[in-house]
Amino acid sequence: MESWRTEEAVDSLEISLKNRRSIALTVVCILTWVGCGIRFTLDLIAFNNVYLTKTFVDTDKYNGIWFLLNWFIFPVLCTVGAIFMFRLKRWGFWIYCLGQIPPVVFSVYTVVTITKNLGSGMFFGLLWNCLSIAFVVVYAVEMNKLSRKPVSTDF
User: Fold this and answer.
1) Could you tell me the residue ranges of all domains in the chain?
2) Angstrom distance (rounded) from CA 75 to CA 81
3) pLDDT value, residue 137
4) What keywords does the record list, in alphabetical order (predicted)?
5) How far apart are CA 139 and CA 146, in angstroms?
6) What is the longest distance spanned by two Cα atoms in the chain?
7) Collapsed DSSP state (helix, strand, coil) of residue 154
8) How many Cα atoms are found within 13 Å in the side-chain-facing hemisphere of 145?
9) Bridge-partner residues for 147, per DSSP?
10) What is the pTM assigned to this prediction?
């Protein structure tokens, strides 16, 4: 009996598989969707918390804007970026970075200002965000699998 090989079958049918999504890209996109879904759900539960809502009512407007960005806008940007990268659109990576990098920078800044020590503050700030940084690195490594077509909204 002849062994079945996918590459030979594709070659015999003359079908080109020019943009194949790698397994790593698929796994990271799915993990991004799951993580953003869990975060968004937990944020909605926390937003319904009366004590938390009272805490943010009495703060200045910049804290309220950061609260809105960090809890709602950034996870949505990460989800949309992962959707476009799953569809092999290169500009999805930049959307994902818009949703991932500002919270990392802000949390490092917050830890550094709280500890007043750049060395240990920077270490713990980056340690806290190592999963976010790892996802950005994996997406950056997988960018060669994404298409270089001009920006469009076609799916």
Assistant:
1) 22-145
2) 10
3) 92
4) Membrane, Transmembrane, Transmembrane helix
5) 10
6) 75
7) coil
8) 18
9) 89
10) 0.71
CA gap 82, 131 in Å, rounded? 15
Place of tokens 């949309």: 80
| C-beta separation of 61 from 12 below 8 A | no
Helix (H) or strand (E) holding 86: helix 74-86
Determine the residue type at 94: W
What is the amino acid identity at position 83?
I
Tokens coding 124: 């713990």
DSSP class per residue in 33-58 = HHHHHHHHHHHHHHHT-HHHHHHHHT
Task: Give the closest residue to 73 by CA, choosing from 110, 43, 94.
Answer: 43
Q: What is the pLDDT of residue 1?
A: 47
94/78 Cα distance (integer angstroms): 10
Mean pLDDT by 10 residues, the chain (155 residues): 55 58 89 88 74 60 68 88 90 91 81 70 72 89 78 56
Written as one letter, the residue type at 144 is N
Q: How much is the pLDDT for 151? A: 60
Return the H-helix or E-strand segment holding 24.
helix 23-47
Q: Which long-range contacts (CB under 8 A, 24 or more apart) does 64-69 make?
A: 66/106, 69/102
**In this predicted structure, what is the pLDDT of residue 59?**
59
Retrieve residue 68's tokens.
Answer: 């809105």
